[in-house]
Write a structure and sequence with these properties.
- This protein is an alpha/beta fold and about 220 residues long.
- Helix content is about 40%, strand content about 10%.
- A 6-stranded parallel beta sheet has the order 3-2-1-4-5-6, with helices on both faces.
Length: about 220
């Protein structure tokens, strides 16, 4: 194991609630649609525009808006979301992550963030973690979002490590599929059965350690 590729939402911090709050407000204000709580999982781990298109499909409005109008709505959602995440602090880092990052640094493992979020640098800055990562993959530079492997391949390339020498950490089905498609070892976080394709699954971030990742890599 030479590198570890981290998803952001649900692995380093929990911003999913902020995403869904912003999407729900946008849907209500712009589309006059109320998103059910169960719809949150449909938006997990995918890009902003993919999320926007899923909401339009749910509302049966997928052919009503132009690409520019859809982009404008996605930008508005991001404005709402940024207002929420501006309140993040070090206290919002998920359990066990700071210790894991320290352990990986001691073992000279390269660290890269593979998130669909274009706000990853801002979020890591707010959490006080940005300097602990060697690279952050830019989702704007990849052709396809998760479950395609592009973002994880890019994350590995940015730390100059072959994906096959990396472990990826994800909490979403689409992310686990992306890690596997990239040729890396997948560690899933959470109790969802959607993580069944992962090579190793832990119940929470508090169980993530260097030893757990190393053992998953050696399987």
């Amino acid at each position: 194991m030479q590198g570890v590729l981290f998803d952001l939402d649900g692995v380093i911090t929990d911003t999913a609630k902020f995403h869904f709050k912003a999407w729900s407000r946008l849907a209500k204000e712009k589309l006059n649609v109320t998103l059910p709580a169960s719809f949150e999982s449909d938006l997990k781990g995918i890009s902003r525009l993919d999320s926007m298109n899923r909401i339009l499909k749910f509302a049966k409005l997928e052919n009503k808006y132009s690409a520019d109008e859809i982009d404008a709505m996605a930008q508005y959602k991001n404005k709402l979301y940024l207002n929420e995440i501006s309140k993040l602090t070090q206290k919002d880092i998920l359990p066990g992550i700071e210790n894991l990052l320290d352990e990986l640094a001691v073992n000279k493992i390269k660290l890269s963030v593979a998130s669909a979020s274009k706000n990853a640098p801002f979020i890591l800055e707010k959490l006080g973690l940005k300097d602990q990562f060697d690279a952050i993959a830019d989702p704007a530079k990849v052709a396809h979002g998760k479950p395609a492997p592009d973002i994880f391949i890019e994350a590995a390339n940015k730390i100059h490590v072959d994906p096959g020498q990396c472990v990826g950490i994800e909490d979403a089905k689409a992310g686990v599929e992306a890690i596997k498609a990239a040729g890396a070892i997948a560690v899933g976080v959470g109790s969802s059965t959607d993580l069944s394709e992962a090579d190793t699954v832990v119940a929470s971030t508090g169980e993530l350690t260097y030893s757990v990742l190393a053992q998953a890599f050696r399987k």
